[in-house]
Specification:
Length: about 450
């Protein structure tokens, strides 16, 4: 099918300009003013902003965790993402300790095949590093197009690897052009604080927050940057939340080191005061937890200083019934919250519309940097001739209110209930096909494709 998008304000990570976009099949074919092309479908984008489809590089779909599974699967999760302008996600495969990476890959392929509506890729979480794992890491990069490897400095006995294993993994990944990503919190310290609080009878959700103070993240972030510096490996800190952790990255730049940093939309717009609502605070129990207002200020500043490169979601939703598993013990509340649908609209509303960031910076944070850092650019993450026609058309002035009554995520509460947003995603294209139009999803499960990523 051919599509002509006319009269929009087109924004990329480096510029914004008035232009038409002509699409044939899955690709962008022409960009320019007053294009003469005839098309089967014409979309008038007058008064609208046209940006690359979003890439959310941190989601957990149908993930086993704490005795249950995250409530969005590949169908519901990628559909909700599309409604919010995100055309591609990167999910996390979790290696089971004592098992192989390939067995984990097969499990996640079964979860996604025939279900995904939007495009997707995987990070491989390495939870048991040994000689066999090292050999499989090389195969993941060279044969499977999976070039990023997630590590955990917390969750001992389930996901955590020690510093020795971390360094060995970095050495292998560096040699073959991949990247090591990290959940950077001090697991031993957190486990000790959780045990102390439980022993003292402190069971409310606020103690989840108090058991993960800022220092646990700042210390682990600094330790990770030191290991990266020693090995020369490319690294990426996921869901960085606070000023202390950002300062660890800032210190690393003093030795001319580059560390890639992701924060998540919740850490830019929500804060720890939400934990003071008795058990209702369970809606925002996630790891790391929400932080203070001063941390929001630090993150917005870090974005404009170039220290924070990507805004993701860590989308890991649960129903309110699932959250009740921790009714009498904060340590049993499933960690995570629903956000995959709201990331781009919230970032636009709170960032661009409030003057915190420019429109090109919005594109950089929501799409382009993830595409570049994870080996998909310029196929993804930009509006350019030859790129996949993944496009989001946004009305910058349209006000609407976020609510569980209207969102498309498979959970019965909203972490952003009643939040008024200025800027509405109206039309979304995925590989030249209209995905979202007139509040409807026009694509079917199985349309989403696995995106092979390049080593760098």
């Amino acid at each position: 099918m051919s599509i002509l998008i006319k009269n929009g304000l087109v924004a990329n990570a480096s510029e914004e300009f008035q232009a038409d976009i002509y699409i044939e099949g899955e690709k962008i074919v022409a960009i320019g003013a007053n294009l003469p092309h005839k098309a089967e479908k014409v979309i008038d984008a007058s008064g609208k902003i046209v940006v690359p489809g979003g890439i959310d590089p941190h989601v957990h779909l149908d993930m086993p965790f704490m005795g249950t599974f995250s409530s969005d699967d590949y169908e519901t999760g990628t559909r909700a993402a599309l409604f919010g302008g995100t055309t591609m996600v990167i999910d996390f495969i979790l290696q089971t300790q004592g098992d192989s990476l390939y067995n984990a890959l097969r499990i996640w392929q079964q979860k996604s095949a025939g279900k995904a509506i939007g495009d997707y890729s995987y990070h491989m979480a390495v939870t048991d590093f040994n000689e066999q794992t090292a050999a499989e890491v090389v195969e993941m990069i060279e044969k499977e197009g999976i070039t990023s490897f997630k590590t955990f400095m917390a969750y001992k006995g389930a996901l955590m690897i020690d510093d020795g294993q971390m360094v060995q993994l970095m050495q292998v990944v560096k040699k073959h052009g991949g990247m090591v990503t990290v959940h950077a919190t001090n697991g031993d310290m957190i486990d000790s604080l959780i045990a102390q609080n439980r022993a003292a009878g402190n069971r409310a959700p606020v103690y989840h927050y108090l058991s993960q103070p800022e220092v646990t993240e700042a210390e682990a972030s600094a330790r990770f940057t030191d290991m990266l510096f020693y090995t020369g490996c490319k690294g990426y800190i996921v869901h960085l939340t606070c000023e202390g952790a950002l300062n660890a990255v800032r210190e690393a730049t003093k030795r001319n080191q580059q560390v890639n940093v992701e924060t998540c939309i919740q850490y830019l717009v929500l804060d720890a005061s939400l934990y003071e609502q008795d058990f209702d605070g369970a809606k925002w129990v996630m790891s790391p937890p929400l932080r203070q207002k001063k941390d929001q200020e630090a993150l917005w500043a870090g974005i404009n200083q170039g220290l924070v490169n990507v805004v993701a979601t860590d989308h890991c939703p649960f129903t309110w019934e699932q959250k009740q598993m921790g009714k009498s013990d904060f340590a049993k509340i499933p960690n995570g919250h629903p956000a995959i649908e709201h990331r781009m609209e919230l970032l636009f509303s709170e960032g661009v519309n409030k003057g915190r960031i420019s429109l090109p910076k919005f594109v950089e944070l929501s799409a382009t940097n993830a595409a570049k850092k994870f080996g998909m650019y310029p196929k993804k993450g930009t509006i350019a001739i030859g790129a996949d026609a993944d496009i989001c058309i946004l009305d910058p002035n349209k006000k609407h209110t976020l609510s569980a009554k209207t969102h498309h995520m498979r959970t019965d509460y909203s972490a952003y209930e009643g939040f008024e947003v200025t800027g509405k995603v109206e039309t979304v294209l995925l590989r030249g096909n209209v995905a979202i139009e007139n509040e409807k999803c026009l694509l079917q499960p199985g349309f989403g494709q696995f995106v092979v990523r390049k080593a760098q």
